[in-house]
Amino acid sequence: MITMHDAALNIIKSGKGSFGSKLAELHAVSSGLKAWLAVNVSNGIETCRRMCGGHGFTQSSNLGHIFAETVGANTFEGTFDVLVQQHARYLLKVLVSLPYKNDEANESNSTSFLTRAKQYLDPSLRCKAQKSEDFGDFKLLLEAFEARAARIVVRLAKQMQATNNDGNACMVLMSRASTAHAELMLLEAFVNGVETVPVGASKTAVSNLCALFGAWLVVNSLGDFREDNYLSSAQGDAVRQQILRLLPVIRKNAVLLTDAWDFTDFELNSTIGRYDGDIYRALVKRAADEPLNKTQVAESYEKYLKPLIQSDL
After folding, report:
1. Same domain, 43 and 168
2. Active site residue 302
3. Same domain as 85, residue 47
4. Hey, which end of the chain has fewer CB within 10 Å, N or C?
5. Of the residues 25, 46, 77, 267, which is catalytic?
6. What is the pTM for the complete model shown?
């Protein structure tokens, strides 16, 4: 996104090139990513809260506050149903305009996978994975996500044509097309980021995390990948096994990977999300600092409840 934004600014400053097409791409991509991220980030925070049990439910965990601040993104600046339509319609425009563009010009943007749509529409095309570890191959994963996105966009184009461009009738496919493209872009960005990390323990750790992310996305939308038998039932089981294989490996680095974001204790303001990990003393201290706990018996008891209990009522 930053690269696309900077490219658009450079076009404006130079006075050359087609700013309109770059702006359209920037708008569509940001719409699709915002729709996907708003849902998954808020769901992710809630998942974290539940995994923390009772501690996650406490106010001192700050997870409730973080969720409340984040969940609004599902509404402001466009709701999911509005944003995916804008994103999907852009993908359709690109698909229709492909015969009039040269491949070199289209290879530089986020929709370059559509230039290979004919290849991905081949009904005999199959995923090449033979075992669970093969789903750690980034090239294989990206090809699977490109094939999925291309096929859904083409299906959407056919449905739009059949319904005389009735967006409401095609809303389900629009959502699927937007989601497929958004997840392709996210995985591609992750893979590109991993490739910039120098060889070593850090690269191995983030590579495993990237592989887990890709496998998790596949499992979440396994129906899309199973359509046309691009993934077989056996491969669907293999990708689940890949997740189970990676989880204990990544768990060893989970704290370090989390700390890599460099969130400060001030930002998190949480008794259970502390840099020093000393959560139980923090929980006791926060409870002791609570005004209601400053006395053994709350002042309200002496003032209101005790007289009522001892009265003749």
Report:
1. no
2. no
3. no
4. C
5. 77
6. 0.87
